[in-house]
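Continuing from the previous page...

OK, I double-checked the sequence for Beta-carotene 15,15'-monooxygenase against my notes and this is the correct one:
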Amino acid sequence: MWASIIYHFRESHLLARIALVAFLLSLPFFIFMNASWVVSNPEIATIQDIFHTHFMGDSVIPAFLLTMYCAFVRYSPEERVRVKSLQGVYTYITASTAVSAGIALCTTLLTQIALWGRELPRITSTDVFFAGLQVFMMLETVGMVVFILTCLRLPIEMVTAFFVTFYMLAEWILSTWIEWVYRTVFYFTLLKSSQGLLFDAVLPFLGFMALTSLISGTLWTKIERGVE
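Thanks. Re-ran it with the corrected sequence; updated structure tokens here:
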């Protein structure tokens, strides 16, 4: 499985990999820029001043989407016959979980480094940890929506381009025009406190993952059987 993922990553379009490197490099840039403001305003700054929707939409989510695009395993009709049933679903969810966890861990560690030794009365290490957890859940949910669309026979290139563009413009357009859509697409990012995180985030996340896994598995099975 991992050999197939690595192979498709190496064979992905060069421009996509260049864009991916640019977005990955933007992660520490955004974090340290946001942290500098937080350090300058310790009495009013909160963890949301680092992990805000602008950071997620312009850096974190595009980096995740481009990584998943480059690593996306494309099965030919002949390969679908040879692989195990639902192998494509298992492969995608495994890769998505690994990439989401990796990006969430990197953002958490970079934030801890940027705030190291600073006296911030409204930001603790626990807040940073829970912010990283919210990043993980946000990326996983976006990844599953993307996968369902590809199971509907939409090209991964088109889906990735749409979501990268959508999230980069979402804060600018939706936050002032259609606020409920804005709050929905950035649901995990906009949670204000770690208190109640189990009921406000973790349980909805687990339910969403179970539902989307079932939907993607059903669609994948139909593709295998040639059902339109």
